[in-house]
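Blackboard transcription, Thursday session:
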Amino acid sequence: MENIRYDLITALPEIILLGMAMLVLITDLFLKQSNRIAIYGLSQLGLLLAAYFTVTTHVPSVGYAFTGAFVDDAMSDVLKLMIYVGTSLIFVYTRQYIQLRNMFRGEFYALVLFSVVGMMIMVSGQSMLTLYVGLELLSLSLYALVALDRDNHFATEAAMKYFVLGALASGMLLYGMSMIYGMTGSLNISDINHVLMNGSGIHAVLVLGLVFIVAGLAFKLGAVPFQMWVPDVYEGSPTAVTMLISSVPKLAAFAFVIRLLAQSLQTMAIDWQQMLLIMAVLSIVLGNVTAIAQTNLKRMLAYSTISHVGFVLLGLMSASGNGYISALFYIASYVVMTLAGFGIILLLSRKGFEAQNLSDLKGLNQRSPWVAFLMLIVMFSMAGIPPTLGFYAKFAVLQAALQAGFLWVVVFAVLMAVIGAFYYLRVIKLMYFDEPEDNSPITAPFDMRVILSMNALALLAIGIMPQGLMTICFYAISRSLS
Amino acid sequence: MTFFGLHFQDIVFYTLATILLIAGLRVITTRNPVYAALYLVLAFFTAAGIWLLLEAEFLAIALVLVYVGAVMVLFLFVVMMLDINLDKLREGFWKALPIALPVGGLMAVEMVMIVGARNFGADVVPAPAAHPADYSNTAELGRVLYTDYLLPFELASVVLLVAIVAAIALTLRDRKDSKSMDPAKQVLVKKADRLRIVKMEAEVEKNDVVDTSAQADDKGAK
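(Written on the board underneath:)
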């Protein structure tokens, strides 16, 4: 009995959010369109409550629940808090957009909350089975969200592509997991680590499993050579959903990689280091070079995501505490940047008009100097120009890779980042030195303007004083990985 | 009991495995989608047979009941109702084959080398302990499902809930071109809503056509 109580308290944030998702679904049935805003309030309240319980039940030690299928450690709590904040921002930014596009319904909010629960399970999973179910919960909600605007032909096509490739990736992941299970006889992350530490298991079979697991993870992260779906899905989805796909799930994917590779297959670091290295280098090259040729803003940001994922893999590839800390720092910074970037795209969209081409940004400075300035910060940060957050994130990752002895990879990554700076700076050129093509006023709710401004300015503020975020990342990794 | 050095179990296994492989291959190579679905049913049946050999009786029965009985029958209905364009489906098959075949073949060879008898043979992997006659596979499955695997089990139910929500959100909607009827509105209908009584003069039918034909008939008679 005592056990069950501990289990339930440990998983309280998940239970609350799950309950809130169902409450949203039911409340939605009894609301008129004019009162629908209550759903928005409920969703935000759910995130707030979950955050409250995540903070209050936090202990600096590692705790296992549900017979070792669920873990509550510093990393999971930190990542969960980041996920709440990110999702809350997404709700703020997307409210007007989905109201104008007839997507402001209970299902949107319920599916987003379900996907958040999936991410939390991925962050806290301690058995391959739990991790996988969490991943499926996240993916299934995202597939449905992409297709939610059913009359949109592009969105349906994007959902189809996303679904088929996602299912393929899940299959690969499962096959790899079954190989690891066959060799170690356990699904539990720490048990697998113990068995492998004792040197049992045939290496060739374990490597085969590892290859499939890494391929599946790369699919989900969107790293080259498994990146085909990223640009199409980003372009086809409604911008509100693109914003969700491109931001917070990456935090969960980071935890997923840490749990599978760094915790359970720690002894095979030599093997997966090479795989991650190849994928990191290819992602950085392809992401940065292909983005130059894009005229669609969302597609450009998709390739930009691929190159950012390459940098995260570079940090993970170091397979050291420093590497993991820098990768966590990078992915957190990436989420802040992406949210601000897509927030501005949502700000520029209006009823019947999607701001998604680079030409839509022309002369933004004349239309609204403040928005242009915010976009300037975001682009500087993505390009990695000091003193923004993006610079410090790239710096940390490259430093960790250098310490691990990958000098030439670091030199190459810096070169590619310089090439990548071209297309970010082109956006700034369009905003400041071109004449606007349409002069329609930019309308947005007050709260969105304020929070978006704070979000973009945070890139500057944390970039100047990165110690705070760095301390959090250090705390999360050092307390969770022994 | 041995035949030509093979145990009876081995014979059953190899027979089932051969049928399973052929059926699996036919699922993707047959031209008719209905046949493909039926081959999949055959594959499920033989897989259930192999599971029986592994003493997983409950799972074998569940596979037949759930997948063959429910999922595949539904699937078959869908396949029969859809107008699938086979030519479009096979478009690009021959173009992709030169790349796909070597890659697939390479992967298959690698997997056979690793998953083969050298690493997973009967002499490497110990046989599971024999169970007494009253051992219940189902009870054992239920015991771990609701204790050790409680969390994944509950989460799987959440995944199903999401599937329901997603399916409803994607299909059930007030479409402008929808021809669905509202029974509540139907029973509330009154005569005045549908029937309009108009006062008008009585119409007199003009007999021009009849007259000319009658004249023609007259001429013919003369």
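Lecturer's comment: The mean pLDDT of chain A is 92.
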